[in-house]
Amino acid sequence: MTELAPLGRRITAEAVGTAALVAVVVGSGIQAQQLSQDVGVRLLANSLATVFGLGVLIVLLGPISGAHFNPVVTLAAWWTGRTTGDGPAPREVLGRVGAQIVGAVGGAVLANAMFAKPLVSWSTHERFAGHLWLGEVVATAGLVLLVLGLVRTGRTHLAPIVVAGWIGAAYWFTSSTSFANPAVTIGRAFTDTFAGIAPSSVLAFIGAQLVGTVVGLGLLAALFGHRADADESVIAPHGEPEQRDVTRSTRH
Amino acid sequence: MTELAPLGRRITAEAVGTAALVAVVVGSGIQAQQLSQDVGVRLLANSLATVFGLGVLIVLLGPISGAHFNPVVTLAAWWTGRTTGDGPAPREVLGRVGAQIVGAVGGAVLANAMFAKPLVSWSTHERFAGHLWLGEVVATAGLVLLVLGLVRTGRTHLAPIVVAGWIGAAYWFTSSTSFANPAVTIGRAFTDTFAGIAPSSVLAFIGAQLVGTVVGLGLLAALFGHRADADESVIAPHGEPEQRDVTRSTRH
Amino acid sequence: MTELAPLGRRITAEAVGTAALVAVVVGSGIQAQQLSQDVGVRLLANSLATVFGLGVLIVLLGPISGAHFNPVVTLAAWWTGRTTGDGPAPREVLGRVGAQIVGAVGGAVLANAMFAKPLVSWSTHERFAGHLWLGEVVATAGLVLLVLGLVRTGRTHLAPIVVAGWIGAAYWFTSSTSFANPAVTIGRAFTDTFAGIAPSSVLAFIGAQLVGTVVGLGLLAALFGHRADADESVIAPHGEPEQRDVTRSTRH
Amino acid sequence: MTELAPLGRRITAEAVGTAALVAVVVGSGIQAQQLSQDVGVRLLANSLATVFGLGVLIVLLGPISGAHFNPVVTLAAWWTGRTTGDGPAPREVLGRVGAQIVGAVGGAVLANAMFAKPLVSWSTHERFAGHLWLGEVVATAGLVLLVLGLVRTGRTHLAPIVVAGWIGAAYWFTSSTSFANPAVTIGRAFTDTFAGIAPSSVLAFIGAQLVGTVVGLGLLAALFGHRADADESVIAPHGEPEQRDVTRSTRH
Hints:
4 copies of one chain form a homotetramer.
Chain A: H1 7-35, H2 39-65, H3 71-81, H4 90-114, H5 130-152, H6 159-173, H7 182-187, H8 199-224, H9 241-247
Helix pairs in contact in A: 1-2, 1-4, 2-6, 3-4, 3-5, 5-6, 5-8
């Protein structure tokens, strides 16, 4: 953790980054809702704005806090790093998750304010159904697999484009439009607009996201092997990550 | 092949990657169909989701299996590597192709489930016409040429963006919307939604894709020369691929 | 400043770059307005064209002038560099801002001419409301934070993609569609088309942008620390910027 | 020229690349026309497919021929290289331009065939007006400036993304939707579909493109200085292009 910024700035970055992310998601949803009658066009705008915004935020704040902006990423980082000492300590996990939730709510309020809506209006958009939860499991499992897969292969510098790209795809191919983030899910309950989720639907979504996290960790082990077993050559040394790994990508 | 993961994980990666790819293609098609009445908007969403998803999957799984996700890529890799020993052995080709097909079907079923559709419903979307087959020949020839052209010039690290970009273009400029993949074609028969293909149309599509593979190998020889003849300087050594090659791109 | 081009070419680049940027913004707005009745589709086209155009212009002219194209970026560069001597001198600030404004007006006139409109027609599009100003504060604060955050972490080579990506998101998630640039705001008053802004709304927008600049500088200090306090290791030496910083992005 | 492929393969690559480019432009236009009634959605699809396709083709064929696909780029390369011996010889210029034109016509015919249209049908789409010619001047000047600006600063490895991005913007912000290429203009006369141009409009478009080439060369001198005058430090040595130049981009 010593390579990142000091703890106070890490927590600040998680709050600011998550706030900005939710402001992007909610704000672009409101704008899209106001400008188009075609729900497909709305989701195109909403998803592309999120791809751009999320990628930029990860670039900006990655060097400060690692740019989690998401409790399941923080939890997965803690879990995979608990034996090696690489992950955040439990106290930091709590601090980050708290900052993410506070930031997410703040971001929703900011988006409401930018569009002259009431600062808080509980969403009335019910999202409560088994197939939506399956969507959240898939979206979150993929996200966790991606982030940790990049860590395992020493390619975290690709996180901005890969994480943003995954969310851009998952907006469309999962039935839930891929919340995949408990803090963002809570924040999106505070706005009765395109991107909102009724408070009564929040808990089940978070449950599905936690299930997805476990699935993602399982896929990680199946695809990348257990770290202890891992051939060292799979873990590229820091400092020269891309060349060796990716060169292999379609070679035999 | 020794630089990739062990065989079991290579096969697993091919199954998981192809499943995720088909889930993206089919799932985003269903979502687009539900949200927009404009078929152009639907295909925009479907194609952009595929660009994002495919690029991400190649980044993630490239270091494990080479990220083929496609029998024609596996076959082409075997063909071009059969004399040098660089390609997969025949047994591995069978294993990969089997995993790709199983994965593709699984991905279609998963997409159906995420959108609360019957797990399997045979597509009723006939795609049976000469001009569509020409589209498949073009799309597949281009794909094979790209993948092997990157290998020949030591730039496989560009595969995620180049392969995804090609498919993004080919969705639109080929009349068949560019299946270009026998496993994915089979998988897409299992869903009676936007991205489906009637089972009776599958075989001819696969035939066209195999023709395209041969055309692509022909173009490869015409453009990049036979490997035996090739000036060694064209094949950049691994580890420093991009700088030398691409710098040349518009210089004289 | 010695690494950039001589002063005359720096000023020329700022004028040409800002002109091209405004021509892109205004011209794509006119085209979109003519081709689609769906305002969402219009803004999609307008925002994507701007993302592409802005990114390209920063790549092209970055080595000449630093590719500010924006008085608040020039001012922020002067402010943060005033003690270290890294920023532009006050006279150069004036020259750049003048060139940006002249360029912006020229770009709007060029766009009008390309679409056979009167060379100048004052916009009648009122954009005068508190929530729009809040949008400008957010958009500009984010822009300033991004540009200076990249400078602080030695990653200005990522500016083309990051700045363009931010504007692409902010077009949608801010209520004002993110002008975030006083020179561009002035230029956009000269066209009574999709991207225009009524002259009577200009001054308040510029005021909001200046407030946003201050907010951005505050966020910079909160997230990246005061430069004097900054651990030297945070400021990557030139020449090897990306590897060290970004590798850290989601590691612990 | 010795770093590229032998002459025969250079010419082949120019023909194949230009054919593929026109197939992408024309084919995606037909598909878009068939799927959407909203002309804005059509141009979005057409422009995004072109961005993807053009970028991929430059990556693929850059190492073979420099990926001109465009007579004005070949001419500009000849002009700027005529004293230093860096450019193509006059005979090669002729060969390339011939290959580009033949390829462009072939690409249009291929696109017509893929969509079951008559192989050749002269376009009836008149594009004959002063403001359209101004659009072509702007689009072509920008293209020439970009390509040669990258050469001058040793960053031709960025050509795929920069050239594709410019065309993506110029599709929208120029009134002519940015043909910017005499060979492609000729090819597009052979299809009476969305992307077509009436034969009677072709010559004036090509004239405007040649004017744009001269304007681009003028801008190049104004922004990057005459090569003879140029401070050597501006021309990065091959092999380490990106780091030094782009790092400077927003620094002072």
